[in-house]
Write a structure and sequence with these properties.
Length: about 350
């Protein structure tokens, strides 16, 4: 028996060995997948924008929260004064007023002011959504709300005395549904600071409907420069006294433009004379009103309140008004009369 052997060398094996084929490249992502990746970028941009808006809204919300939190105590003081007025505790209500307020408004004048403003005396509460606070002064604008729901425009300014808030300025308007509906209503000047309008004077026929009002011809004022015009006198019985309120307008004063804001500064002197022509010491005072404010104004409202005891003689009284323009360094004087029946 024969056996035939075939011997294959490594070399011959290598000639017949073929390596496995290279796998084909992976297929590319379909177009829909690439669009989804692009959309993802837009989602990130939109998300970033929303985050920025949320941060901005948060900052605004924090600012509003800060203002309302900072003015919570001043608002509480106003409502504490209203509560005292409802309880007919005028002394307690007067205690919430600042030292500056009391300097120009004594207790009797405050009592007269409250009596002449039922909206203040009968208010259940004061609500305010328009508030400002800066450098120890809080300004609250809103509505006095009576027990029957009637609303009257009002504005209070408060200042810090130590750690306490005190009322420095009171401004009351007529009844209104909301303060926005009656922006044109003329407000009653407060007992510490004269109101300065920035527009054309509004009619004043309804200032004191229960008071006797005298409109007296005044000494002619110059056509230009500092001048007093439109003097009006109101009389109203107040127990054993006669309350005489004198209102007038000042034109032609100077404005200081050297500071950050335009400024005016007026001082008022008052002289009152008996019917026989002699001066009344108790109703004569230099610098009785000091009016300083910031802004550009066409005219300034100024006023005075006199208390005439029943023991004073009947007849015609004369009042001499002098205004000193501290900015323009000019003075003007005018006079008016009223008859005490």
């Amino acid at each position: 028996m024969r056996y035939n052997f075939i011997v294959m060398s490594n070399e011959n094996y290598g000639q017949h060995y073929q390596p496995p084929p290279v796998p084909p490249p992976l297929p590319q992502a379909p177009p829909s997948q690439r669009k989804e990746e692009g959309a993802g970028k837009y989602v990130l941009l939109i998300g970033g924008g929303c985050l920025l808006l949320l941060l901005l809204a948060g900052a605004v919300g924090f600012f509003v929260w800060y203002i309302f939190n900072a003015t919570a105590d001043p608002l509480k003081v106003v409502n504490l004064q209203l509560q005292a007025l409802q309880q007919n505790d005028l002394e307690k209500a007067y205690s919430y007023c600042s030292a500056g307020f009391k300097q120009y408004t004594n207790y009797e004048s405050f009592q007269s002011f409250v009596s002449g403003n039922p909206a203040l005396k009968n208010a259940k509460e004061f609500t305010s959504s328009n508030r400002e606070v800066a450098q120890g002064t809080a300004k609250l604008k809103g509505n006095l709300v009576s027990s029957d729901g009637t609303k009257s425009i009002a504005e209070f300014h408060l200042v810090q005395e130590g750690r306490a808030w005190k009322i420095q300025y009171i401004n009351i308007g007529e009844s209104a549904a909301t303060s926005e509906e009656n922006k044109s209503v003329r407000k009653v000047p407060d007992q510490n600071r004269d109101e300065i309008p920035t527009s054309t004077p509004e009619p004043q026929d309804d200032v004191a409907p229960q008071a006797q009002r005298d409109t007296i011809n005044t000494i002619p004022a110059p056509t230009g420069g500092l001048r007093i015009q439109e003097i009006q006198v109101e009389q109203q019985a107040d127990g054993d006294l006669t309350a005489v309120t004198i209102r007038f307008k000042v034109y032609g004063f100077g404005t200081d433009d050297t500071g950050r804001s335009p400024r005016i500064h007026l001082l008022q002197d008052l002289k009152t004379y008996y019917p026989d022509g002699s001066a009344i010491p108790d109703l004569t005072r230099p610098g009785i009103k000091d009016l300083e404010d910031y802004g550009t104004f066409d005219y300034a409202n100024m006023w005075n309140s006199l208390k005439i005891p029943s023991s004073y003689p009947r007849g015609t009284y004369r009042v001499e008004l002098t205004v000193h323009d501290q900015v323009g360094n000019t003075d003007t004087t005018s006079s008016t009369e009223f008859t005490l029946q």
